[in-house]
Design goal:
Layout (H helix, E strand, L loop, with lengths): L1 E5 L6 H6 L7 H15 L5 E5 L7
Parallel strand pairs: 1-2
Length: 57
């Protein structure tokens, strides 16, 4: 399976406020995104990451 994903905004504290994401901080958001990713994506998949991947820590 091939997946396309864009603009996860890992470590972007302000995106929580800008987009009304339901997290108290970037660490919590990162963990949620990673857990969701790992529940779907396997090593047999191809993922195309387009856009912002990570904000400087």
């Amino acid at each position: 399976m091939r997946y396309f994903i864009a603009d996860t905004h890992f470590n972007h504290e302000n995106i929580i406020k800008y987009c009304n994401r339901p997290f108290k901080n970037a660490k919590e958001m990162n963990e949620y995104i990673i857990n969701k990713w790992n529940s779907v994506i396997t090593q047999k998949n191809i993922v195309y990451q387009i856009g912002i991947k990570i904000i400087k820590m």
